[in-house]
Design a protein that fits this description.
The chain has 97 residues and is mainly alpha-helical. 60% of the residues lie in helices and 7% in strands. A two-stranded antiparallel sheet has the order 1-2. It starts with a helix and ends with a helix.
Amino acid sequence: MICAASLVSASDGKSLFDTNCAKCHGTDGKGATKMGMKAGAKDLTDAKVQAELTDAKISTSIKEGIKEGDKTKMKAFPDLSADDIQALVGYVKSLKK
């Protein structure tokens, strides 16, 4: 039963990613979209990038966005539930190649 719940979360994570993140990060997570390249989106499939991404860092980035000085690098998604954020964190971690 736990495995089935994990599969649902992974599926939800992909759906949430496709809806909220793919515009910049691409459906493959590489960040090679027009908006992603302009914003400097990280390649979420890169092992070095993934090594820097703790669950807490991903979660905070989703909830609060990412700013560099006064420039917004990634918008916040404050309307996502804690479960949605957890599903996204799991999905982002699964993109590691």
